[in-house]
Specification:
Carbtransf_dom; alpha/beta; 2 domains; Carbamoyltransferase domain-containing protein; Nucleotidyltransferase, domain 5; ATPase_NBD; 4-stranded mixed beta sheet
């Protein structure tokens, strides 16, 4: 007797670049970002159009979906938010005051919010047992390993921050992924790069590609300054940031006055002229970031003995 295929709808939403992906027995049938339909760049709203596209393209109805999986765990993220504010109190009260109403109104009740939105897409009945939540970095790791041609691989994931993890080291075998090590917030190579994105005058979470594109026009004159002051980088790629140069834990900006003093000027105003110094700073953080990634990659391959490496 032929077994019924397992069909899973994966979702990301409410942060940036919301999207949907439809999986059948481990194979991708369809995937799309919401911005492609709304024409709103980095659209973070619930991906109702992307879901509709995926279901229509695959010829599958909502009632045929076995599970819906959201890309991270809101309660763990809220725990990190609270613990961070408590650790730095009373600094950061303004940031906390602005963030907490949204959490109390929506994000703490995200399961209900998602169920309500899915009902608008044609899903019926009680969805509580069909709606699952994956940890943020596990979702990243899966996005790199499962579509890869490898049956087993080391997996390195780096971003700004998930629930707590900012970098993770995992091992993928067939249809399973095990995370072995993590670097936790507030120490983050992604947030370090975003801090420079902010400092050079670009928008965080969308302008990082501009910083990378600016880097080839400069020389890495400030790379050693970054390594001497901002990041304590070990030979295995592990690191810690000097948080006195940053403001993202407690404030509404990425960098502190100490950061600005280190580079001799306040952040560049958006859309103002780019100078050679800005290009040199971009080249410097690009070089440091690449060195971190290379050290982490070499360390992971040496530790696991794997011949394959997936990056996310």
């Amino acid at each position: 007797m032929k077994r019924k295929p397992i069909q899973i709808l994966g979702l990301s939403a409410y942060y940036h670049d919301s999207a949907a992906a439809l999986i059948q027995n481990g194979c991708i049938l369809a995937a799309a970002q919401e911005e492609r339909f709304t024409r709103r760049k980095h659209d973070a709203r619930f991906p109702i159009n992307a879901i509709g596209y995926c279901l229509n393209d695959a010829g599958i109805s909502p009632k045929e979906i076995d599970y819906v999986v959201f890309y991270d765990k809101p309660f763990l993220k809220f725990e990190r938010l609270l613990e961070t504010y408590l650790a730095f109190a009373p600094r950061g009260f303004n940031s906390f005051r602005k963030a907490i109403p949204l959490w109390l109104k929506e994000k703490l009740f995200q399961k209900k919010l998602l169920c309500d939105e899915l009902h608008k897409c044609g899903f019926e009945g009680n969805l509580a047992n069909r709606l699952l939540f994956s940890e943020h970095h596990l979702s990243h790791a899966a996005s790199a390993f499962f579509p890869s041609p490898f049956s087993r691989s080391a997996i390195l994931t780096m971003d700004g921050v998930g629930e707590w993890a900012t970098s993770s080291f995992a091992l993928g075998k067939e249809n399973k992924i095990e995370i072995h090590k993590e670097i936790h917030f507030p120490h983050s190579i992604g947030l370090l790069y975003s801090a420079f994105t902010y400092y050079i005058g670009f928008k965080v979470n969308s302008g990082e590609y501009k910083l990378m594109g600016l880097a080839p026009y400069g020389e890495p004159k400030y790379a050693q300054r970054i390594l001497d002051h901002l990041i304590d980088l070990k030979t295995d790629g592990s690191f810690r940031l000097d948080l006195s140069y940053f403001n993202y834990c407690t404030g509404l900006t990425m960098t502190s006055t100490r950061f600005h003093d280190l580079f001799g000027a306040p952040p560049r105003p958006a859309e103002s002229q780019l100078t050679q110094k800005h290009m040199d700073i971009a080249a410097s953080i690009q070089k440091v970031t690449e060195e971190v990634v290379l050290r982490l990659s070499r360390s992971l391959i040496k530790e696991t003995g794997e011949k394959n490496l997936c990056l996310a």
